[in-house]
Specification:
By secondary structure, this protein is of the alpha+beta class. It has twelve helices and twelve strands. The protein folds into two domains: 212 residues, Beta Polymerase, domain 2 (2-Layer Sandwich); 115 residues, Poly(a)-polymerase, middle domain (Orthogonal Bundle), CATH 1.10.1410. Helix content is 34%, strand content 18%. It is found in: Membrane.
Length: 351
């Protein structure tokens, strides 16, 4: 309800008629919106706000490096495009490509390249500051502003704030991102919940990469595709929430065993595609818990746990992926266990 109010205010403010990115409907991502939360959940509700390119501009995603698929970052290149046909139809924007700089300066606001970009690339930190200003100026026009108190929290790559009303309070983090084509894969301003740690807590002997991220780097996320998968299976299960109760068992009761919530979630999603959905009944709860444990044991023994989205032929057709993501060789999330015998022995002892 809050995000829909923001969207209406953004639209009324004429954002879509400016030369800034155009916010679309927000998408809830992470455990809070999927219906489960690990014990160490930070209490933050994260929503992803897709950004479309403004008139006269186009977004192009460029892969920054040939790193592992699950840790890729992109740059969002901004290109000016011809709008002469729109002008001929009576629309006002001048064409950035075919009108003189003097005429553009006199009659039209600056292009996105001149406001939120570093060179030709959309800058995350500049976009975050613009988005913060947009949310801040919109708040007093929101119906929620009459009963809730809003306090912004510092963040250079997202818009984060706390809402309070009496003894009630909640923290919201609005991430923003760009969709890859028409798919459910996005590049986002900040790593999402599941990307903030390794698939397991067993540390490899390989040196870890620095946490520094360039202001033009947008990490890739599969959070929307995973949320759609959970929605897909919930519609078919005899007990809609049984799989989420299984996930809560492992992420909460077994906290401290060394397996991250990301590992349990990945294993559960694989089991949901191998065990018939008709068998997820309340009376079979204990058996499904054992299926998840057995699947994890097989993955540990083989030192191989496949990424759930990339290269998964069992993924429901309603989840849209870029063609390259369906054809790619499935990524092994337990590769570090294959490289590090000590970490593998520790993982087996923990199991």
């Amino acid at each position: 309800e809050l995000m829909e109010s923001f969207r209406r205010v953004f639209t009324a403010a004429g954002v879509s008629n400016s030369f800034y990115p155009v916010p679309q409907g927000a998408i809830g991502v992470g455990s809070a919106f999927e219906g489960w939360s690990p014990r160490d959940w930070d209490g933050v509700y994260r929503v992803l706000v897709p950004l479309n390119s403004p008139p006269g501009h186009a977004f192009h995603l460029e892969l920054n490096s040939a790193r592992q698929m699950a840790a890729r970052t992109f740059s969002v290149r901004v290109e000016l495009v011809c709008t002469c046909k729109r002008e001929q139809l009576g629309e006002e924007p001048l064409c950035f490509l075919h009108h003189s700089q003097e005429e553009l300066r006199r009659k039209q606001k600056r292009s996105l390249l001149e406001t939120l970009c570093t060179g030709s690339y959309l800058d995350v930190e500049r976009t975050s500051h613009w988005f913060y200003q947009l949310v801040r100026s919109s708040w007093l026009h929101m119906p929620q502003s009459y009963s809730w108190h809003l306090v912004f929290q510092p963040c250079s790559r997202s818009c984060r704030f706390q809402l309070s009303k009496g003894k009630k309070s909640l923290t919201v983090e609005m991430l923003f991102g760009v969709r890859q084509g028409d798919s459910d894969i996005f590049v986002v301003s900040q790593p999402t919940e599941a990307q903030k740690g390794n698939p397991s807590n067993f540390v490899s002997s390989q040196p870890t990469e620095a946490n520094f991220m360039a202001s033009t780097a947008w990490p890739e996320t599969y959070a929307v595709a995973e949320a759609k998968f959970f929605q897909h299976v919930a519609r078919q299960l005899p007990c809609q929430s049984l799989h989420l109760k299984c996930l809560q068992i492992f992420t909460c009761i077994l906290k401290g065993t060394g397996f991250s919530s990301s590992t349990w979630k990945t294993v559960l999603m694989h089991v949901l595609t191998t065990v018939p959905l008709s068998r997820w009944r309340r009376r079979e709860f204990a058996r499904r818990l054992w299926d998840i444990m057995a699947y994890l044991r097989r993955c540990l023994q083989s030192k191989h746990l496949e990424h759930f989205v990339l290269g998964n032929e069992r993924l429901p057709a309603e989840i849209s992926l870029p063609p390259a993501a369906r054809r790619v060789e499935p990524l092994n999330l337990f590769e570090h266990l294959a490289r590090d015998p000590a970490a593998h022995r520790e993982a087996m002892r923990a199991y």
